[in-house]
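Sequence design from tokenized structure. All designs in this work follow the same two-part layout: the structure record, then the generated sequence. An example of the structure record is given first.
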């Protein structure tokens, strides 16, 4: 029977990291996994809402899970923070009857009720546990044996363990094994389980940049060709703000950062355009060259001078986005089209469709 999931990509994948969204769809389609877009979900609120209004955070996520329950399907996410917030909501409501009653009193106003039982799974768990790691290996058509890949797991699939229902070592081992079955060499390093700094980017940008830079230099020290992360928020700071990280640590990093679905896509035969590798701020050209040629410099597909020029343009585009929130035409030309959300429905002001 075909595997089916309610797909909740999260705001960042839909609005910023669109290559993560599209590569996830492409990989799942290739593997025969059906994704049904969560068109009546709202933003999870991340950790920010929880700090401002804990009850509203519980209510918003209980609402999303209540809608998921109507489908009878598990939920799949590609954002560690969405994963964490929903898992923690489930844990809190399973252990606090008074809060559960309070939440359901509010949800009754829009005709729904939260009930436990909806499975929330991260993309890496779907691949490893549901699809099965051995089955995934059968679909590898291009082993990534020329690549040394450093995993950056991201805080919110590792901790807090009790609320997530999985030990951090188990989560790390599953991500590592996915990388390994794709044929790549897994490069473990000192700061692979550290925080990326995303959630303090606005409050303390200098500290965020320094944390980010130290993480990537730790992987670079072990001679990794690239870092792969299962979290779209980690990708935002590691790729999009790498130039800030370089300034903060006073060293050139130039480390390609791939989303986990992109790495899987390369191994199962998807092309770079489908995977959106040209959308990255830090060029992925060297990664592609290693896959094709195994690295001899004289055989590189992309001339070094052109690649460096392209990277500078992308860095400038990234800086423009960070400063203004607007995308310049230079940065927009290769972006995949993603439907804009329709107007919110009258009966539930938090819902949206796309």
């Amino acid at each position: 029977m075909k595997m089916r999931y309610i797909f909740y990509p999260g705001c960042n994948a839909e609005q910023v990291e669109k290559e993560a969204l599209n590569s996830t769809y492409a990989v799942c389609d290739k593997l025969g996994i059906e994704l049904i877009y969560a068109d009546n979900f709202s933003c999870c609120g991340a950790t920010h809402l929880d700090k401002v209004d804990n009850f509203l955070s519980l209510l918003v996520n209980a609402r999303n899970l209540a809608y998921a329950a109507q489908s009878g399907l598990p939920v799949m996410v590609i954002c560690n923070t969405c994963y964490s917030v929903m898992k923690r909501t489930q844990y809190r409501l399973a252990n606090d009857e008074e809060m559960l009653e309070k939440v359901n009193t509010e949800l009754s106003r829009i005709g729904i009720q939260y009930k436990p039982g909806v499975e929330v799974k991260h993309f890496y768990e779907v691949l490893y546990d549901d699809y099965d790691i051995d089955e995934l290996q059968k679909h590898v058509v291009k082993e990534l044996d020329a690549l040394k890949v450093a995993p950056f797991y991201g805080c919110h699939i590792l901790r807090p363990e009790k609320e997530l229902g999985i030990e951090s070592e188990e989560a790390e081992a599953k991500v590592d094994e996915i990388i390994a079955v794709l044929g790549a060499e897994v490069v473990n390093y000192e700061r692979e389980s550290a925080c990326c700094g995303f959630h303090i980017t606005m409050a303390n940008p200098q500290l965020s940049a320094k944390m980010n830079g130290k993480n990537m230099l730790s992987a670079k020290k072990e001679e990794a060709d690239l870092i792969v992360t299962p979290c779209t928020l980690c990708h935002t700071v590691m790729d999009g703000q790498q130039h800030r990280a370089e300034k903060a640590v006073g060293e050139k990093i130039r480390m390609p950062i791939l989303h986990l679905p992109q790495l899987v896509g390369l191994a199962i035969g998807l092309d770079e355009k489908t995977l959106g590798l040209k959308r990255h701020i830090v060029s992925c050209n060297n990664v592609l060259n290693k896959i094709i040629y195994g690295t001899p410099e004289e055989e590189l597909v992309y001339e070094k001078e052109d690649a460096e020029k392209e990277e500078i343009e992308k860095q400038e585009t990234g800086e423009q986005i960070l400063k203004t929130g607007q995308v310049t035409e230079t940065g927009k030309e290769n972006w995949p089209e993603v439907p804009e959300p329709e107007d919110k429905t009258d009966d539930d002001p938090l819902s949206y469709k796309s």
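The CA atoms of residues 158 and 314 lie 32 Å apart. We note this feature because it recurs in several other targets discussed in the main text.
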